[in-house]
Amino acid sequence: MKNNLLSEKLIYTGESATPTHLHLCVYDTGGIVLAAGNDFQSVKETINKEKINWLQVHGLKNVDTVQDICEYFDIDFLILQDILNANHPTKIEERDKYIVLIAKLFSPEHPDDELGGLSQQQVCLILGNNYVLTFLENETDFFDDISIALRNDVLRIRSRQSDYLLSVLLNSVMGNYVSAVSSIEDRLEDLEEELLTISNSNDVGIQIQSLRQQYMSMKKAILPLKEQYVKLLRAENALVHKVNRAFFNDVNDHLQSVLQTIEVCRETLSSLVDLYISNNDLRMNEIMKRLTIVSTIFIPLTFLAGIWGMNYKWMPELDWRYGYLFAWILMLSIGAIIYLYFKKKKWY
Predict the structure, then answer these.
(1) 120 Cβ partners below 8 Å, 6+ apart?
(2) CA 325, 328, 332, 335 torsion: positive or negative?
(3) Of 22, 82, 107, 176, which is the most buried if we count CB atoms within 10 A?
(4) Which is more confidently placed, 307 or 175?
């Protein structure tokens, strides 16, 4: 079931079982106030519109809480549906009073498993004049370093506007992409080295397919940002102040680096598939060559055995006292001569 405009009923479409809970950080140059709760009413009184408000929402099961937050900050119904749609495509959208960014975060499903895939969760960032909202599907410490930076006022972060906080959050998202794409790139390089040694490992094809699926998931999540990120850099964007545009440009540099690495991964995947097929052909040729050599050795022996196997009465060899021994010596000699000939020609 999906959210639609024909019904006011809202549902979370993802599979995360994380209970909804909120973390609020209100700050300015004078200090910082923290609050937490399981519903919006428990943190609502702490919000101060004269300061910067960063509200983190973990877990989207409680739709009513998400709806209360959106109504308070005047986020429209369509964006509310997008937040609850766990499979929403990556996008950046501008509205009159806020900017919405929907992206994906990646993490390894089984860190110790070479064949382990990547799990992903949706993250929604909303920038307003004096607030930033982050909606995450799961319980995660992904933004904890930013919370610590705010508490310690690292690089005077509390003296900057809300758009600077968004740039820091985006930088963390790009860091996640860099880490995930680099991991895929490293594994592709390891596979390439393994294939170049003509390895007989049976799971190489499975690994290539697994990495290809991860690559496609990342490409689908990140590539839309290539066209849409420019919306944050436009001069007429009132929510992104000129003094902070340099930080968004820095994030854009990281994005371009990720996109370049994704392109390299695409080329590497393509070459690995070709190399894997070539290796299979080489292994098949090796098998066929060995079978051909064995057949070549036994063909003359089969011919001799067929000749002497005919039951003609006047076949002179049948009455020869040493005929059986001679037949064995002759056949073994022929086999050895053929084998040594192939060995000399380096066909075997």
Answers:
(1) 104, 105, 106, 107, 217, 221
(2) positive
(3) 22
(4) 175
